[in-house]
């Protein structure tokens, strides 16, 4: 049984009037980090957690890896957040084989620190990218590994787009029952959908994640959902209003979307 960190919907349900995704996104969902009295205390807890995890917790569970090397690898993965990991580049940087890098990734996946999202495997005439995308599951740990200690610094950091994307995707994926399947879609010409959900009723939901108050969607998204035959199209953004972007695509906030998923799961 997986005991996950706090989710956006859990925090919202406990304090809806003053709820904001920003605190959870910045600090992550580990209780001692999220509930800390200040960002400095939260950051110190996360730094200590990372050190303890690589120095004591993982070795206690069996894998015997240099804590210095594993922490360095984890930090390097933070820079690949939301991307396809090039194992040969990481192997060269760490002075190990690419098979060792894959073993490290499996360890962090098994220990719930990273999530590898597989590419969509449905029928299409387009050539698809076949490498999984990798996300650090807790964005608080992501920010600590990237040495982002203040929320204002996060807003000006290059990671902001993929960081928010990972936060949204993790909250969605952890909301799904085992009757759903999830993946991402990308062709060799970079036509992409951030998250693809396949429902128990064989519906195909195409989801784009944007960190803009007035999100605009690229033509590639529309081309992608036509290629896939998507039945539902959504854009998840930081706001709370829900409105149609056009006749086929709906814009909504994360909480609203999670409530929609909760309702769908209850009905099926």
UniProtKB/TrEMBL annotation:
Q: Which organism is it from?
A: Arachidicoccus rhizosphaerae
According to the entry, every stretch annotated as the DUF4143 domain falls at 55-211
TM region positions: none
According to the lineage, what is the superkingdom?
Bacteria
Q: What is this protein called?
A: DUF4143 domain-containing protein
């Amino acid at each position: 049984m997986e005991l996950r960190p706090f989710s956006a919907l859990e925090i919202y349900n406990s304090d809806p009037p003053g709820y904001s995704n920003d605190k959870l996104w910045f600090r992550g969902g580990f209780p001692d980090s999220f509930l800390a009295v200040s960002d400095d205390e939260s950051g110190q807890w996360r730094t200590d957690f990372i050190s303890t995890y690589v120095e004591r917790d993982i070795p206690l569970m069996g894998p015997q890896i240099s804590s210095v090397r594993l922490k360095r690898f984890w930090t390097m993965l933070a820079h690949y957040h939301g991307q396809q990991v090039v194992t040969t580049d990481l192997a060269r940087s760490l002075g190990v084989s690419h098979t060792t890098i894959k073993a490290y990734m499996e360890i962090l996946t098994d220990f719930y620190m990273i999530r590898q999202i597989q590419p969509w495997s449905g029928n299409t005439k387009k050539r698809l990218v076949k490498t999984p995308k990798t996300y650090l599951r807790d964005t608080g740990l992501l920010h600590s590994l990237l040495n982002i200690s203040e929320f204002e610094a996060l807003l000006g950091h290059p990671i902001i787009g993929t960081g928010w994307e990972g936060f949204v995707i993790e909250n969605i994926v952890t909301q799904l029952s085992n009757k759903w399947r999830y993946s991402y879609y990308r062709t060799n010409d970079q036509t992409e959908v951030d998250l693809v959900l396949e429902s128990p009723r064989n519906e195909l939901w195409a989801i784009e994640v944007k960190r803009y108050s007035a999100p605009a969607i690229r033509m590639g998204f529309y081309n992608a959902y036509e290629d896939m035959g998507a039945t539902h199209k959504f854009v998840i953004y930081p706001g709370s209003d829900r409105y149609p972007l056009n006749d086929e695509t709906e814009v909504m906030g994360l909480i609203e979307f999670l409530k929609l998923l909760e309702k769908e799961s209850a009905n099926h």
